[in-house]
Amino acid sequence: MSDVKLSAIDRALAAAKARKAAKEAAGILQEQTPVAPKAPRAEDPEKAAARRLRAAAKEAKHAQLEAERAERRAAREARKAERVATPKAKGPAHMKKVERALSKLPPLNESAKAEFEAMTSNYGIYELEKFAAHLQLFSRTQKTLRAADLQKLPLGASVTITGGDLRYVGMQGKVVHSQKLRAKVAVDGVKKPVYIYTGEAKINQ
Questions:
Q1: Whole-angstrom Cα distance, residue 149 to residue 197?
Q2: Mean pLDDT in residue range 25-50
Q3: Mean pLDDT, residues 14-31
Q4: Residue 184: which H helix or E strand, with range?
Q5: Contact at 8 Å (CB) between 176 and 126?
């Protein structure tokens, strides 16, 4: 190969090396040159004020919720402490039905109450049961005699129950069956018609 060709190749290789060195130097320089941070954008004063108001409202609401929670906790602790300090007196479990039945009885007037207290104080259980049986028969006899002197309740009449089973006294209903002595009154909410004597209901006006 001639000297001219070799010189041309050498010059091309040298030029390529020079270009490569220049690129590497430029890359190193670019990496070493720090990028200037962007200047923060100025915030709109109205938006800044609104943001502060929202933050303040959020903090106030959070504080209110915490105060309410603390108040409820304090109330629960107070009730618990009161229950511990004054435990509720509990009677025998088998007496609950008796107490419930007693609460449903109508009150006695003063004279009847005095008679009841005298009888329960002076007689034993067996004698009181005999008294109760005699009183029930007497009551039934008087109801029958009174009903015999009254007119039958009209079918379909709206009436108010005034006697009989104490659970239904004061309730209103409709006469669905009527005979000389007895009648049946259908009452809303009661599964079966209420069976009464004729004199144990008053016709509504």
A1: 12
A2: 65
A3: 68
A4: strand 182-186
A5: no
Amino acid 167 reads R
Q: 186, 170 in Cβ contact below 8 A?
A: no
Which domains does the chain possess?
115-203 (2.30.30.30)
Cα distance between residue 181 and residue 200, in whole Å? 10
Q: Write the DSSP assignment of 143-168 as a string of letters.
A: HHHHHHTSPPPPTT-EEEE-SSSTTT
pLDDT, one tens digit per residue, over 154-185 is 999 999 999 888 889 999 999 999 999 999 99
CA distance 68 to 75: 11
Cα–Cα distance for residue pair 148/97, rounded to 1 Å: 37
Tokens of 63: 């504080």
CA distances from 198 to 136, 153, 162 (A): 18, 7, 10
Paired with 177 in beta bridges are 184
